[in-house]
Design brief:
Chain lengths: 317, 317
DNA sequence: TCGGCATCAAAGCACAGCTTGGGCCCGCTC
DNA sequence: GAGCGGGCCCAAGCTGTGCTTTGATGCCGA
C-alpha cells in the first residue's frame, strides 16, 4: 500500500488487449452488431468496449454511420495492431500444441561414453523416426557430471550408472532402472585366469590392476574389500579402449562393464565372467520435481524400448 | 439465440490475452510474487492467472521451485508470444499518439485549379514545416467533383467555391468560409469598357462572352439576368489561361475571379472592376458528421492562416 | 532452530461487463 | 408516404470474474 515508485512504462497502463480483440472484430465486420454476433454477445456489449477503448486512447476510432461504422485513421491503425495480436494468440496456441504433439520441442540428453557408443544412438534414431520435428541433443558425460547438468537445467534427461556398493552423493533425482550391466574381468590371453570360468574376485588377489573413473575405481576397491584384499592399482584411465590396450600389453588386469566391451572389443584381450559379482546398474535420471516435457517423455520411452532386450538378457542372470 | 454455426476458429477460443500479459511479467521476474509487485497485485492473484493459463493451454508452464518459479519449454514459448503482444500494445499506443501529435498521419486535400495555383501550396508548405511527418496529398478537382470525393471518403478536406446566386446541390457538408474572391471583367486592351471604372454588368449587355465551367457559366447567366439581359455566350473553357487567350484574340470578354488572374495573368488583356458584383466565395468543405483527424485539423488551420491576408483585403471591399 | 520468502488454498466481496428493454434515425420497399 | 428492418444509442440491473484477505506449508540461509 506504500507509494512504491512504479515503473513509468508498466504493463498497467497498456491498452486492454481484450478490447483490442473486440475492436479487431468490429474492424473485420464493419459494424458493432456484426462483431457482437461473431463474439456471441449483444450489440451494447461491443459498443461499451469500443467506447472504453476510445476513452483510453483519447482518439475517435469509429464513426457511426447509418449502415454500421467506419474506421477513422486512428481506428485503422489500432485495428492493424489488434489483428497482429490475434495472430500472435493463434500462433501461441499452435506452438503449444506443436510441443505436445512432438512436432516441435527440444530435449537434451546426457549419457556416459559406453552408452553413447551402444544403445543411445539407436534410441535417438527411433525417436527421430517417430517425431522428426524434435530437436534432440546429446552430451557425453559421466554420471556425476550428468547430475550436475540436470541440476543446473542444462540437460533434461541423463543415462547414468551406479554401483550398489558405492555410496551415491546424488541429490534427489527421479531414476528409472534400464538394465544391469555385467562386470567382466579383462585379462591378457593365456593369462592364468583366462582359462577358468565362474571364478570370483578373490582369485585375483595377487594381480596388478588398471582402474577406471573414480566411481569405477571405488567399485573395484569396494568389491575387492568384500573379498578381503586391497587391489594393487597401477594405472588409471577413463577410456575403455586404453584400458584394453594396457591389459593386452600385460600391464595388469581390469574390470570392465559388458557395455564397454560391446562398444569396442580389443581382440588381444580375453574376458572372464565373475561369480556373483554385482553388476553396474544403468538408469535414466531426471531432474527432481520438474515434470518432464512431452519430448522428454518420448525420449524416455524410446530409451526404455531400445534397452528392452538387455533387460530380458540380464533378468535371468 | 438459435445455435448459429459458429466459426471453428473464432476469437472466442483464443487464450485470454490479459493472462498472457501477466505471464510475461512472471517470465520477466521469475517469480509470482515479483510479477505481482510489478502489477500492483497480490501474489495469489497472479497464481490464479497462471493456473488458469495452464488449464486453458493444457500445458505445465512453470515449475514451482523454492526460489520463485522456472519456466518449462512450453512456458518459454508462451512467454515469447506474450512479450510480442506487450510490444504490440506499446506500439499501438505509440502510433496513436504519433497520429495525435502530427508525427504521422495522412490528409487528402482536394482543391480547385486556381486555388492549387495560388495559396494551397503555401498552406501545405506551412503544414509541412510544422509537421514533417504528415503525408499530405493534393488532388485538383472542381467543387462538384470535390464534394463527390468527400462523400466517397476519398478526400478529407476540400477547397471549394460557390456563388450566392447559383443554387447548390451539395449534400450536408460542414463549410468554413475562407475569403471572397472578387470577379473581374476581362477585356482586350483598348476595349471600350477598359477605360471605365466602376461600371456594372449592365454596361456589357451587347458583348460576346467566353464562359467557364458549368457553375461559373450559371453564375454569369444569373448575374446577367439580374441586369436584365441574356449573355451571348460564344465559347466555353474551364481553363483561365485559355479564357484570357481567347479574350486577347478579341473573341469575346469574360468574367474571371481574381484568384485565376493571380495564378496566371495574360499581359494582353485588361481587367475591369465591377460595381457591386457578387464575389465568388472560397470555402473549406469537410465531410459531414465525421470528426476531422488531427492532421485534417492542422491542414485546416494552415489554410485559414495562409488566407488571412485575403480576408483582410476583401473585408472592407 | 529460527526467520524470511516463496509457495498454495479457501472464502469473501466488489466491480467489470454483459444483458435487458427502451428509443431514435436512416434507407429501403411497397 | 408510411411501414419496416437494421443499425445505432442510453440506462439500469444482475451475474460472475477476479482480486484480496487470511492462514498454512516448505525450503533456504543464518
Amino acid at each position: 500500500m506504500a507509494g512504491e515508485r512504479e515503473s513509468h512504462d508498466s504493463v498497467r497502463d497498456l491498452l486492454d488487449p481484450r478490447r483490442m480483440l473486440v475492436f479487431a472484430e468490429v474492424a473485420r465486420f464493419g459494424s458493432l452488431a456484426g462483431a457482437a454476433q461473431a463474439l456471441g454477445w449483444t450489440q451494447p456489449a461491443v459498443a461499451q468496449h469500443v467506447r472504453r477503448l476510445e476513452r483510453d486512447t483519447g482518439c475517435t476510432l469509429v464513426v457511426r454511420t447509418s449502415r454500421g461504422v467506419t474506421l477513422t485513421e486512428a481506428g485503422h491503425s489500432l485495428a492493424a495492431h489488434a489483428e497482429a495480436i490475434t495472430a500472435r494468440l493463434r500462433a501461441a496456441r499452435a506452438d503449444l500444441s506443436a510441443l505436445t504433439d512432438l512436432r516441435a520441442g527440444r530435449v537434451r540428453l546426457s549419457a556416459f561414453p559406453s552408452a553413447c557408443a551402444t544403445f543411445v544412438p539407436a534410441a535417438i534414431a527411433l525417436l527421430w523416426e517417430r517425431a522428426p520435428g524434435l530437436d534432440v541433443r546429446l552430451t557425453e558425460a559421466e554420471p556425476d557430471e550428468a547430475r550436475r547438468l540436470l541440476a543446473a537445467g542444462d540437460a533434461d534427461l541423463a543415462v547414468t550408472f551406479d554401483y550398489d556398493n558405492v555410496p551415491d552423493a546424488s541429490t534427489q533425482t527421479a531414476r528409472i532402472k534400464l538394465f544391469d550391466d555385467t562386470m567382466l574381468l579383462v585379462v591378457p590371453p593365456a593369462h592364468r585366469l583366462a582359462a577358468r570360468s565362474d571364478i570370483d574376485l578373490a582369485a585375483a588377489t595377487d594381480q596388478r590392476w588398471i582402474a577406471g573413473c573414480p566411481r569405477c575405481r571405488a567399485h573395484l576397491t569396494a568389491a575387492a574389500a568384500g573379498c578381503g584384499f586391497l587391489p594393487d592399482i597401477r594405472h588409471s584411465t577413463d577410456d575403455y579402449v586404453v584400458t584394453q590396450t594396457l591389459v593386452a600389453a600385460g600391464l595388469g588386469i581390469a574390470l570392465l562393464p559388458a557395455l564397454a566391451l560391446e562398444a569396442a572389443r580389443d581382440p588381444r584381450v580375453e574376458t572372464v565372467e565373475l561369480h556373483r559379482h554385482t553388476p553396474r546398474r544403468v538408469s535414466l535420471t531426471s531432474p527432481p520435481d520438474i515434470p518432464p516435457s512431452p519430448a522428454t517423455r518420448a525420449l524416455t520411452s524410446a530409451l526404455v524400448e531400445i534397452t528392452a532386450p538387455r533387460r530380458m538378457r540380464t533378468l535371468p542372470g
